[in-house]
Write a structure and sequence with these properties.
This protein has 140 residues and is α+β, with helices and mostly antiparallel strands. The protein has one helix at 2-38, and strands spanning 41-49, 52-53, 62-65, 70-74, 81-88, 93-97, 110-117, 121-128, 131-139. It folds into two domains: 1-39; 40-139, Beta Barrel (Lipocalin), CATH 2.40.128.270.
């Protein structure tokens, strides 16, 4: 009987340890991704709205993402445009908002479905009023 209790306790400890280890690994992955996002400047390298390529409207803008979930769109000679962002790794989405930003930054507002990501780029898509929007951000 005592041996069964010891085996059961050992199994429980092992499961708790594995669970904690898995959580630590997930947190380390998330920290890596957040560091990649916030420690770099980003630029829009492709933006299509239905059949129209409007990438040029984002020329000269760079984006600085911060840990406090703020983001700033910066363009030389203009004041920074403040926005927010939030990533969801499980859903593979990023939500961004530039509610008072100038055009074209308001086009970035919404929930974007991430379709491809690398260490230096992100591709995402969303649909607004039946129009498919495609976005690509590249690390500067």
């Amino acid at each position: 009987m005592r041996r069964k209790n010891i085996v059961a306790m050992a199994m429980f400890a092992l499961l708790v340890g594995l669970s904690s280890c898995k959580k630590a690994v997930e947190e380390a992955k998330e920290d890596f991704v957040v560091n990649l996002i916030v420690n770099n400047l980003w630029q829009v390298t492709n933006f299509t709205e239905g059949p129209d390529n409007i990438t040029g409207q984002f020329a000269d803008y760079e984006f600085k993402f911060n840990r406090d979930l703020t983001v700033f769109g910066r363009k030389p000679g203009q004041p920074d445009a403040a926005g927010t962002w939030k990533g969801d790794a499980g859903a593979m989405t990023i939500t961004s908002a530039f509610p008072t930003g100038p055009a074209p930054l308001t086009k970035l507002t919404g929930v974007w479905n991430i379709t491809r990501t690398t260490l230096s780029s992100v591709r995402a898509t969303r649909t607004e009023s039946g129009t498919v929007l495609n976005l690509e951000l590249q690390k500067k």
